[in-house]
Design brief:
Shape: elongated
Radius of gyration: 29 Å
Number of strands: 8
Helix content: 25-40%
Order of helices and strands: HEEHHHHHEEHHHHHHEEHEEHHHHHHH
Number of helices: 20
Structural class: mainly alpha
Length: 548
């Protein structure tokens, strides 16, 4: 029998011993003849508590093989490896141990400083602009001095047989819960081969190839490299990732789930797909500046446990806030692109021209979401009281439809507890939703373009839910929102890729209706189906903007 804890302790001891030796060991050399005076190798001091590095031991199960011990040679980083790591991080080659802080500092003083960032013209700028420019220059210089993180060595092609079927299946479920392929698959591209353009306020970020291709994907990534990217936002080559990749959520995933994702991805078919280079505007294109962003906004602490809640609630909270990364779209962000928390948690945001509505008590749906409706929406993309999933959420639902039923139920259960408006604040029945007769140009456009499918609403649900069409429009959440964006995008683009087969198709009207006609139509629909809401303003220029 091999005791896993004993193996981990052995590896810890080996790492501490060899690191102590590499950093602390020294020998006396006669300066003139350059010969060794003393060959006493056993007197080096051991690292003290504050100097001990973080040591993570990953145990890979081998169910059909005999137990194996852990030889020292497989767990001891040699002095040469440490020297290489320092070189990768600093550009300075240390050839003689020990690699003491004094030696490193002295070497930096001899090394030519990196080129300063581009000059900022200060003429005709106000005082605060000058201070801001100086601050950016100072941070850029500091980040350049700090440098990137170490490159993690590549591995040879991984033997996928080391992963159990159960581990791979667990990873497949997590991939569905996180809709990973939604961002890592380009329009009409191959699944998970990357290249999709992700719009941000700072420029366009292109997703990466996460198939196990050895040249363009993650085929040479060790688990350590994968885990560092997932939970710390640092790539295998030591470069910093941008938070368009939601590593701030993945940072709270447990190690077994990260390993499961790794196992699933490494077991897939490699796809050759070169990376499209991300180029943001200055100063956001200076990746080392992310060290400051991470220091401010990256929280790797585990999610707090709430002993008053059920196991299902805890599971839902974990999935929503980690692999599901719901806050990445449904929480607003500050001027630096970080998610706002506390009272802003899941309070809504705009992503790629679509509104990700509030999932808390700020949600504008006329009838309050309950657990059953949330589950039905996440699982099928259509509900009896809120309409259907469209836009980016359609892809999310497509993936959730194949995920574990218990996990989707847990997410719905948790989300139902934060949508905690009192029953008196929300309507309960469709008959309580007012309808206002209106006769204008928008009404005529509706009759011409929409009424064939969207029949005039009645006081009861039309029995066409199974076909995925004709949920009464006075229940549609888009019409009750504070913003018209989702309704405009739906009319412009239609629904050509339903979330599931229960959601119907809808034609696009961008080539048949003008901006003014769509504005008139939307104005009519808002006033007719949601007369208790304030009218939207500035619709025609907003339609023109979203059409682009």
């Amino acid at each position: 029998m091999i005791n896993p804890a004993g193996v981990a302790h052995q590896i810890h001891g080996n790492v501490i011993q060899t690191t102590s030796r590499a950093l602390k060991e020294s020998m006396s050399v006669e300066p003139i003849k350059n010969t060794v005076i003393s060959q006493e190798w056993g007197t080096y001091p051991i690292l003290n508590f504050r100097e001990v590095p973080t040591i993570d031991v990953v145990m890979i199960p081998r169910p059909n093989e005999q137990p194996q011990g852990a030889g020292e040679s497989s767990s001891v980083p040699g002095t040469a490896a440490i020297a290489n790591a320092i070189f990768d991080a600093t550009g300075i080659r240390f050839r003689e141990p020990p690699f003491t802080p004094e030696k490193v500092r002295a070497a930096f003083q001899l090394k030519e400083l990196p080129a300063p960032p581009p000059t900022v013209k200060l003429a005709q700028k106000g005082l605060w602009k000058i201070i801001g420019a100086l601050g950016i220059a100072l941070m850029s210089f500091s980040a350049a001095m700090l440098g990137g993180k170490n490159t993690i060595p590549s591995i040879t092609q991984l033997d996928r047989s080391i992963f159990t079927d159960q581990l791979i299946e667990r990873g497949k479920n997590l991939m569905a819960l996180g809709n990973c392929q939604g961002c890592h698959t380009n329009e009409n591209g191959q699944v998970n081969a990357g290249g999709r353009a992700l719009e941000t306020p700072f420029g366009v970020v292109y997703s990466t190839n996460i198939t196990p291709d050895l040249e363009t994907g993650i085929g040479t990534w060790s688990f350590s490299a994968f885990q560092r990217a997932m939970q710390h936002g640092i790539s295998k080559d030591g470069s910093y990732l941008y938070p368009a990749f939601p590593y701030t959520s993945y940072a709270k995933m447990n190690e077994e789930d990260v390993m499961s994702l790794y196992a699933f991805l490494m077991a897939q078919k490699p796809i050759f797909a070169p990376q499209t280079k991300t180029e943001l505007t200055f100063p956001f294109n200076i990746r080392p500046l992310m060290v400051f962003w991470n220091a401010l906004f990256l929280n790797t602490a585990e999610l707090p446990h709430n002993p008053k809640q059920s196991v299902q609630w805890s599971r839902g909270a974990y999935l929503v806030n980690t692999v599901g990364h719901c806050t990445a779209c449904h929480s607003p962000r500050n001027i630096l692109g970080a998610e706002k928390s506390d009272s802003n948690y899941l309070s809504g945001n705009l992503i790629d021209g679509w509104e990700a509505p509030a999932l808390n008590q700020l949600n504008q749906s006329p009838i309050a979401w309950d657990e059953a409706e949330l589950y039905r929406y996440l699982r099928t993309g259509i509900t009896q009281q809120h309409g259907m999933a469209g836009g980016p959420m359609a892809g999310v639902v497509t993936q959730l439809s194949s995920a574990s039923e218990a996990d989707v139920q847990a997410m719905a259960h948790y989300l139902s507890t934060i949508n905690n408006s009192s029953p008196a604040e929300r309507l309960k029945n469709i008959s309580d939703i007012p309808i206002k007769p209106i006769f204008n140009s928008g009404q005529r456009i509706f009759e011409m373009a929409c009424s064939a499918c969207h029949q005039q609403p009645s006081t009861h649900l039309i029995n066409t839910v199974e076909s995925g069409s004709n949920i009464p429009l006075q229940l549609n959440s888009q019409l009750h929102s504070e913003r018209p964006d989702n309704l405009i995008r739906t009319i412009l683009d239609g629904i050509n890729r339903p979330a599931t087969d229960r959601v119907g198709y809808m034609p696009a009207f961008k080539n048949s209706l003008s901006n003014q006609q769509i504005a008139d139509l939307i104005n009519y629909m808002r006033e007719h189906f949601a007369p208790d809401k304030n009218s939207w303003t500035g619709l025609e220029p907003h339609v023109k903007s979203l059409r682009k």
